[in-house]
Amino acid sequence: MQVEILGTELTPSETVCEGWIHAFGTYYPRRHMIEHQQSAWSKAVILAKRKSEMIINHFGRMIAAHLEHCLMEGSDYVITHVPAEPDQQPYLFCGFPQCATECLSAAIYAGLSSRVNITLESLLIQVMPKSKKQHQCQSNAERKKNVSGIYAVKDISQIIGRNIIIVDDVLTSGATMNECADVLRSAGAVGIIGVALARTIRLRP
Fold first, then answer.
1. What is the pTM of this model?
2. Which end of the chain, N or C, is more open, meaning fewer C-beta atoms within 10 Å of its C-beta?
3. Is residue 185 within a helix (H) or strand (E), and if so which, with residue range?
C-alpha cells in the first residue's frame, strides 16, 4: 500500500473556505467503511497521523511543489501548524518529539528549502481545552463554538506584517483552521494560506 501512495502524482489542490485553504485529497472517515477501505488517500492520512515518516515526507514534498506556484516572489512566509491537543502524546520524528501537524509542517518546509524567505516556527498554543472532540460535535456551528477562544499566539513579534502558512491534517468543517487564522490575523498577519492533507466528505468547496 505504501508503494501505491508513494507513486501518487501531484494533482492540483482543491480550495475550500472561500479559496484560502488548499486540501490535497478526500478523507473518508471509518464510519464510511467501504469508501475508507478503498481510498488510498484515506489510508495514507491515517499513516501520517500514526507517525509514518516516509508518508509524511512524501506529503511534504507534494505540498511544497504545489506551494511553489502559490507563493509571491519576494514575500516573507512563516510555516506553522495547528497545535496538538494538550493530552495528545508527541512522537519522535527525525529524532525530536513532535505532533503530526508539526511533522508535516517541517516536511513542507524541507521541500521549500531553496527559498530563503521562508521560516518554520511554532506560532500558536492551545490555552483552553475543548469541551469535546471535534468529531463528537453534531453541527458546524457546534464545531465553531467548540474551538472559539482556545488558541493564542506565543510571540506577536513573530507574526506582525508576515504571511503565514497554517498546516493541519484533516479538515471537517474548517472551524479549527478558521479559528487559528483569526487569531493570527488579530496578531498582525498580513496574509494566511491554509494547507491540509485532506478534507472529509462533509466539507464542500
1. 0.86
2. N
3. helix 175-186
> Residue 25 contacts by C-beta under 8 Å, 6 or more apart in sequence?
41, 44, 45, 197, 198, 199
Cell numbers at residue 126, please?
Answer: 492551545
pLDDT < 50 stretches in the chain: 1-3, 5-7, 9, 93, 95-97
Q: Give me the pLDDT at residue 15, please.
A: 85
pLDDT, position 12: 61
Residue 146, CA distances (Å) to 51, 96, 136, 139, 186 in order:
26, 30, 10, 11, 19
DSSP 28-82: --TTSHHHHHH-HHHHHHHHHHTT-HHHHHHHHHHHHHHHTTTSPTT--EEEEEP
Question: What's the maximum distance between 2 C-alpha atoms anywhere in the chain?
Answer: 48
Q: Indicate the angle between helix axes 40-49 and 100-111, nearest 10 degrees.
A: 110
For 187-196, give one letter per residue: b (16+ CB within 10 A) or e: bebeebbbbb
